[in-house]
Each structure stands twice: as C-alpha cells, then as structure tokens.
C-alpha cells in the first residue's frame, strides 16, 4: 500500500488502542485491527470480483465497488496473505465499511478509530470526536448517519447493510437513552 495509506493505518491503530483503553476493549486486537483494516484497499477490482466468486459471496456485492469490498471481501486477502485468522479482528475489519446491526466492541472501536484518527479533517469530524469521547456507541450511530447523508448527497448507491445497521443502531441508542432517563 502507499505510504499515505499506511500512515492512516498506523494512526487508526493508535486511535483504536486509545478507544480500547477508554472502553475496556482488547488493546492488542485493537492495535492489530487498526493496522490491517485497510489492507485490501489497493487490491485491483478484478481480484475482488474473483474473490467474490471463489468464496461464494452474495452476488449483490458485484454491484458495489472497492469502498464496500475492501472490508467485506478484504478479510479473505488478510487470511490468505497475512495468515491472520483471529475471528474478532476479521469481523471488525469486515464491518468497518458498512457497520452491522450487532457490531461487537472491537468492531465498534475499529469503525470509530478509522473515522476520527487525527489525520481526518472532513466537516463534522470534531463533532464525531467529541461524541465518541463521551460515548463510543453514540459515535457509531453518528458515523452511520454521516455515511448515509454523504452518499445520498452524492447520489451514490447505498449497500443495504448500511441501512440495516443504521436502523439497528438508532433503536439501540434510543433504548439506552430511555433506560438512562428512567434511572
Ligand atoms: Fe477502509
Ligand atoms: Fe481506513
């Protein structure tokens, strides 16, 4: 990968360690997950298409591109080329492009670390950092909302799992808020 992307992976790794420490997560897995999360980002489309067929993944994936593939399909390259088979790390990498309804703690950490690492400068990043510092799960919902808004504004297709994740996290966060109010 390019030096620029590798630097992003290093910053994501450091941020993941921080988030793991703050949220009682697995620090070593966070460190490794951050480092490998974009491993497949620069793999050519033709290789992804081949991997989708080889691993009998859903055909609808073929309608999307690298932005979705490097997470969901990228894990197969990480397993084959790096020999990394840790299920929790692979799940976190797999879910870092779309989120998922369940997203275990490590997946939340990698998802947020990727979004708010110090090299990020998109409009709204400060808000994302502030929310995540207070509440990791609220950060996840913020990123999912941000992602959907961004894609709609650019009139780009949205992978259905991103919608499903968003709906699940809206419910999850509103339940947490209601539970807190009831206390
Ligand atoms: Fe990525
Ligand atoms: Fe990334």
What does the model show?
The structure is a single chain. This protein is mostly helical. The chain has a single domain (3-182), classed as Hypothetical protein af1432 (Orthogonal Bundle), CATH 1.10.3210.10. 70% of the residues lie in helices and 0% in strands. The structure holds fe (ii) ion (2 copies). One fe (ii) ion binds at residues 37-38, 41, 70-71, 96-97, 114. Keywords: Hydrolase, Iron, Metal-binding, Nucleotide-binding. It comes from Schleiferilactobacillus perolens DSM 12744.
Q: Any ligands, ions or cofactors bound here, and which?
A: fe (ii) ion
**Radius of gyration over C-alpha positions, nearest whole angstrom:** 16 Å
Can you give the helix content as a percent range? 55-70%
If you average the pLDDT, what whole number results?
96
Order of helices and strands: HHHHHHHHHH
Might you state the CATH topology name?
Hypothetical protein af1432
The CATH class, by name, is Mainly Alpha
What is the CA–CA distance across the termini? 49 Å
CATH superfamily: Hypothetical protein af1432
List the helices and strands and how they pair.
Layout: H1 3-23, H2 27-36, H3 45-54, H4 66-72, H5 74-82, H6 87-94, H7 105-116, H8 125-134, H9 136-153, H10 160-182
Bound molecules: fe (ii) ion (2 copies).
Question: What attributes characterize this protein structure?
Answer:
183 residues, mainly alpha, Hypothetical protein af1432, 10 helices, binds fe (ii) ion
């Amino acid at each position: 990968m390019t030096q620029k992307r590798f630097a992003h992976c290093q910053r994501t790794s450091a941020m993941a360690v921080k988030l793991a420490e703050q949220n009682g997560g697995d620090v070593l897995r966070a460190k490794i997950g951050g480092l490998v999360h974009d491993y497949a980002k620069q793999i050519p489309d033709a290789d992804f298409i081949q991997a989708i067929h080889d691993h009998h993944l859903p055909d609808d994936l073929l309608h999307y591109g690298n932005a979705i593939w490097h997470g969901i399909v990228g894990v197969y390259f990480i397993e084959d080329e790096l020999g990394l088979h840790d299920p929790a790390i692979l799940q976190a990498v797999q879910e870092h492009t779309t989120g998922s309804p369940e997203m275990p703690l490590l997946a939340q950490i990698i998802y947020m670390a990727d979004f708010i690492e110090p090299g990020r400068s998109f409009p709204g990043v400060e808000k994302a950092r502030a929310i995540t510092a207070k509440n990791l799960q609220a950060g996840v919902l913020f990123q999912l909302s941000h992602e959907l808004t961004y894609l709609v504004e650019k009139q780009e297709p949205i992978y259905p799992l991103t919608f499903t994740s968003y709906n699940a996290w809206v419910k999850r966060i509103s339940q947490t808020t209601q539970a807190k109010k009831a206390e």
